[in-house]
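Q: What structure does this chain adopt?
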Amino acid sequence: MQQYRKAERVVVTGACGFLGQALIRVLLERKRQVTAVDLSEKERLLSARRGLRFVAAERLFEQSLEADIWYHLAWAGSAGEGRKDGVLQAQNIRQTAEAVAQARRWGCHTFVFAGSIMEAEMAALQAAGKALQGTDCYACAKRCAGEISRCLAAEAGMRHITGRVTNVYGAGERSQRLICRTLEQLAQGEMPEFTSGTQLYDFIYVTDAARAFLAMGEQGKDGQTYVVGSGEPKPLRKWLELLLEEAGGKGIFGKVAFSGISLTEADYDISALVADTGFCCRVDFPSGIRRTMAWQKEGRI
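A:
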């Protein structure tokens, strides 16, 4: 097995995003030197800390630095209407290829790409003979960017690892995604409406997801795609019932039509991640919901 030098210098693109900020905190706790890359106007979202430097994405290719591992989390249009913007998603593919090129110039030995569980959903739809929709542009682009970056990394002699993210939630999230949106609705005295919730889902708290990416980058095997989740998938309704119990609220199930496809337990299997890196989750779902609620409450005070 090829040996790689210790990962002391790392790059995180999409550094000011929800998962990016959590990954940076974990990396700094491990005494890594972190170069955070994001749009210049987002620099204000990062607190100045020892071992952290910020590089504006607009000027990334003007820089000449040295690094060991490149964590590529940057992605525009990961939710909402952006998912079906084909031009935007194509730009994400190009930017991923450019990131690999820059990682090569900076001497990185490892490139870690953030994939999505929606890639598995798209594959399941195709296997079932169902037509793809505009919102599947996001999953198509993720799959394409992952494969292109894998090819380019191999050409450059770099390790390539993909972390296929299930559903990340937690303190610090500002979005209209399911957990964040539902907790906000409950806090406002509303009664959220859901599907019947029979489809399998998995959720992972943001700090655990960040630890999973760190573990993949430093201990993962070249060419692997690791699922980033709790490893305990269950019907969505069971997750939501746990959330409602912690929040002390009620929801209406079966009110919203479900037009997607349910994945299998195999799609959520994290055993390879556990076997190769020793990863395990530290924050269970009820605890994660309590932490998220506390953070949201602080923001409303």
